[in-house]
Amino acid sequence: MIGKYILAGFTHFLFIALCLKILAFFSPFVLISYYYFLGNVLVCAVIAKLTFGVSKHYLLSERINPENKAVLITGAARGIGNFVAKHLDSKGFHVFASCRDAHSPGADDLRKSCSKRLRVLELDVRSDESVKRAAEYVRDNLGGCEFWAVVNNAGIHQGAIIDLSSIEDFKDSMDVNLFGAIRVIKAFLPLLKQSRGRVVNMSSLGGRFPVPVCGPYATSKWAVEGFSKYLALDLDVWGIRVATIAPEMFQTDMTSGESILGVIEQSWKGVDEEVRKDYGDEFLQGFKTCCSKAMTSVSTPRLDSIAEDVESAIALVHPDAGYQSSRNSPLKFLLNLFVAYPTKLQIIAVRAYYFLLGMPKPQRVLKEIN
Ligand SMILES: NC(=O)c1ccc[n+]([C@@H]2O[C@H](COP(=O)([O-])OP(=O)(O)OC[C@H]3O[C@@H](n4cnc5c(N)ncnc54)[C@H](OP(=O)(O)O)[C@@H]3O)[C@@H](O)[C@H]2O)c1
């Protein structure tokens, strides 16, 4: 494995050296010397990204045989989990698709549309007992397969801006999105140690970039990212690889306009009179419109890039530690630029975005301005 990495690095280096030579040959001397330092850095960065991608694609693209490999996915009844379960089944994995309710329409759909290899089981990631039962069920039903990976997909989105989010919203988000994943990992660790398998944690755009408005959700996803980075170090000694998947905006129940409005209305009901007065009813209406517009305008219904990234994290012999599932290259570029800004600049960028979106200001802030 180390040999392959060295080979990939060496090919990468040769590509860069060659490209720079070609550039220097064709570009007018004056131009090269004028832009010497900045030009060098930019050209190197762009070429490095391209060549590393190419060398990795050809040299580190080896995949494991899914034939006798079992994978557990949580939250498979709907959305991304449902799509990924079907995708992994179609690739030949033995999928244990866990749902909170094993008789929900989503669970029935999985039984009907997937191969006989796929098993549906009940698992509520908030319950120690349920997770324990699921781990026992999987262990007893491997049927000669090796348990290879856990995909912690189950997730919830509650709360909004800090004033509209209760402590319960923060606790619930942590309980499902972070502690749920930890419960599942701990229960399946004995099996993963045997196979030297994989842990895949569903993070989010909101776990890698400072995304405003969704406080409890983003907090839990930053925690998932941090936990995963730590876990990768801990589990290295067992040969277990850990990866996070950070999807951008994809159309599922979680990101639908209806669900966003429901979350905000629910949060508003819980806030006390003083906070209501601070914001005012007009704010609420504008806020709801902006949030659902912001969510739906950039989201895509094509979930295949997430499924491919999850499959890469599970099936590649040399997987990445993190994947950013995206269908929207300009958005991806802007976000990566944004994350490199200092906080003060990020705040200015968000102000500009709010302005373009027509995000209202709280009533009290407006009064103080006037
Ligand atoms: N959609 C996006 O744009 C996006 C972007 C970034 C990250 N993500 C992440 O991707 C994952 C899936 O999101 P999604 O968009 O597919 O959301 P979704 O459509 O709302 O589906 C969420 C899934 O999680 C399950 N779940 C919720 N609480 C659970 C619990 N206590 N135990 C077990 N399962 C539970 C739900 O089961 P029930 O059907 O029983 O409720 C459902 O199957 C989440 O972790 C989310 O944070 C999504």
From TrEMBL:
It holds the Pfam family adh_short. It comes from the Eukaryota. The keyword Membrane applies. Keywords: Membrane, Transmembrane, Transmembrane helix. Signal peptide: none annotated. One of its GO terms (biological process) is steroid metabolic process. GO terms for molecular function: oxidoreductase activity. The chain crosses the membrane at residues 5-26, 32-52, 333-356. InterPro entries: NAD(P)-bd_dom_sf (IPR036291), SDR_fam (IPR002347). PANTHER family: D-BETA-HYDROXYBUTYRATE DEHYDROGENASE, MITOCHONDRIAL, SHORT-CHAIN DEHYDROGENASE/REDUCTASE FAMILY 9C. Belongs to the short-chain dehydrogenases/reductases (SDR) family. This is Estradiol 17-beta-dehydrogenase 2.
